[in-house]
Amino acid sequence: MPQDDDVTELDEIVVIGQRRPAGSSGAYGGGGGRGTGAPDQYEIDDDPNPQPDGPGYDPCATPEGAAAWNADAAAAKAAQDFMSEAIRAGGNDVGPRGPNMRNREWGAFLLKSSGRDIEVGTIIPGPEIDWSDLTTDFSVDLTGANNANYMGDVHTHPGGSPLPSGEDWDNFLASNARARNTPPGRPDETFYMYVITINPDGSIGTIHVYEDAPGDTDDPPPTEIGQEVNPNGRPC
Ligand SMILES: [Zn+2]
């Protein structure tokens, strides 16, 4: 079904920003968070200029802001791509109203492509979930990922948790450390993890972002639910 590749084409939607606080029903605004060139609209208390939600704010004006912006957009695209793959898989991956995203976990790495663009890496299906035995393991496909282009990962939680598991977080930090420390190294890079919740009916829920910026104290895994990413986010 090659036409599935078009599901993210939402040209009529004007996107103001890519993130909002978890649980909010307000508008998405602001780009990257702590440690980047893009201030977070919800944490501003010193009246920077320009305001991230003001008319003069351009999240794409700095490399750091653009990276966060494009990572968010890639995560939003990944959610659409996962659903397309579920439809392609057929069988238990399709429910009465569309893709059944509860049948298995889906994941991919996020990779730097040309310039500051970020693309969704190879998508592979996890094993079908046996809800009576949730001990199965799932790793995303490493094809095409290396220490120079790795930017993070995006994966679904069919059980609905918006938080990374301990294993998710450990793997994320290990990959980030490798990318930062393997010569020539990327010590100033911020890496991104996106957890996509799945609703009980098998539809996509919300996309939550977690960042690992240089100098962050990252252990243990986050207990605060990450900001929601605009599912219609577009890249810079
Ligand atoms: Zn997970």
Could you explain how this protein is built, in words?
This protein has helices spanning 63-89, 166-181, and strands at 19-20, 94-95, 98-99, 104-112, 118-120, 124-128, 150-157, 191-198, 204-212, 228-229. With 236 residues, the protein is an alpha+beta fold. The protein has a domain at 60-130 and 137-229. The radius of gyration is 17 Å and the shape is globular. The protein binds zinc ion. Zinc ion binds at residues 155, 157, 164-165, 168. The site of zinc ion has 5 residues, from β7.
Strand content: 15-25%
Number of distinct helices: 2
Helix residue percentage = 10-25%
Write the element-wise H/E pattern from the N-terminal end onward: EHEEEEEEHEEE
Oligomer: single chain
Strand elements, count: 10
Sketch the major β-sheet. 6 strands, mixed
Secondary structure class reads: alpha+beta
Q: Measured on Cα atoms, how large is the radius of gyration? A: 17 Å
- What is the average of the pLDDT values? 82
End-to-end CA span = 28 Å
- Molecules bound to protein: zinc ion
Task: Give start-end ranges of low-pLDDT stretches.
Answer: 1-16, 33-50
Tell me, briefly, the overall form: globular
Search tags:
single chain, two-stranded antiparallel ribbon, 2 helices, globular, disordered N terminus, binds zinc ion
Q: In brief, what are we looking at here?
A:
It is built from two helices and ten strands.
What's the arrangement of secondary structure elements?
Elements: E1 19-20, H1 63-89, E2 94-95, E3 98-99, E4 104-112, E5 118-120, E6 124-128, E7 150-157, H2 166-181, E8 191-198, E9 204-212, E10 228-229
Parallel strand pairs: 7-8
Antiparallel strand pairs: 1-10, 2-3, 4-5, 4-6, 4-7, 8-9
